[in-house]
Specification:
alpha+beta; 2 domains; Rossmann fold; single chain; Tumour Suppressor Smad4
Amino acid sequence: MDRSLLGLVLHPTRDVSEVVDILVGWAARHAVSLAVRAEDEHRVPSSVQPLPADELASASDALVAIGGDGTMLGALRSAVADPKPVLGVHVGKLGFLVEVEPPDLPAALDRLAAQDFTVESHSCLVCDVCGDDVVAFNDVALIRQPGCGFVDATLAVDGQQYGYYRCDALVVSTPTGSTAYSYAAGGPLVSPASDSVVVTPSAPMAGITRAVVLSPDETIRLELRKGSGRVAVELDGLMIRDAATEGVVQIRYRRDAGLVVRLDPRRYQERNQLKLSLLDLPLLPEQLRELVPEGLRERLNRRELPPPR
């Protein structure tokens, strides 16, 4: 791999010092430079170069996301203009996009350097939110503010009016995001190998009351109706607009928008099976024993883990 710069994307609050130390030691032995967003400069050794947040992905040959699924999604969003391979290192709670545990990181970096890996392509939603261009790899959600009315919006597809929604929240998801907010709202599980967009209302009271599955080539337009309550807009769980009572969200599907490094596709597929078991699609007992480490199995039995997001 003719890569001389790895960009580090850090979880905003968790202690990532153990993983950063492993990366710094490996980079010194392999004559590789490391960079981090300028606002995270105080969390890394002085040998790691600080860069403006909007330049980190473009300057790097690959990114290393240190955290959970949220950190991984943030790394993918940062590189959407020029997709770079993103290696996920698991720190903290249960995560499914990330693949590498800290003790396995040196070997994973060796394989990255030797180009001994596969790349998993991810789609995203390209959104125009009241004039602001943003992207989401999991979902876009219009969510009512408690005590301030309901989401009241029309749905148009390729310029044709489909109907309207009156609900607590309206979730538009990619296949990857179908297991997150959309599923919690009653939407279907969609194979990550497919290309589609799912629009799911949460707690619908009028209008369209079921999930709608659309083609990836169709343009979706959601417009708040007169009299709608105050609505927040979230992308991948991050709020980008608050208390809107009017406006338009236009959404297009983009293929191959993110590149995730996979070192062991079979292991990742097994973790997907486990994820489905946590979403009430139970595995056979012998499958669960094979997939889940004993310690995690005990925590699941005690119900100490939150539902996946």
